[in-house]
Specification:
This protein is an all-beta fold and 102 residues long. It has strands at residues 2-7, 14-18, 21-24, 26-27, 32-37, 45-50, 53-57, 73-74.
Length: 102
């Protein structure tokens, strides 16, 4: 199960569209909309419909946008990634150069 959340304090309704099905989202007092969707697993596309109008929009906090910035978002489950760097021991700090850019 995945919890989908979006902050939209000025809206009257928000629906999550997951795999072609719409789910009503519930609003909290602080303007966050939320819904738990069992079928929204790793690799599932989703988007939001705001106030029941227009084209479904991507999640502004999405970690995966395979269809570009205007297309549907995709659920990303970090636990499915197979890490392969367990043998890496890092670098010595002595002699290293740190660069900080703002």
């Amino acid at each position: 199960m995945t919890t989908l959340r979006v902050w939209a304090p000025a809206l009257v309704s928000v629906d999550a569209v997951v795999g072609g099905s719409a789910y009503d989202m519930k609003r909290s007092d602080d303007g966050w909309w939320r819904v738990d969707v069992d079928r929204a697993v790793h690799g599932t596309d989703y988007a939001f419909v705001l106030d029941g109008e227009g084209t479904p929009l991507p999640d502004p906090r999405s970690r995966w946008q395979p269809h570009g910035v205007h297309g549907a978002s995709r659920v990303y489950d970090h636990s499915v990634f197979l890490w392969s760097d367990s043998g890496w021991r890092g670098r010595q700090l002595a002699g290293s150069v740190f660069y900080e850019l703002h």
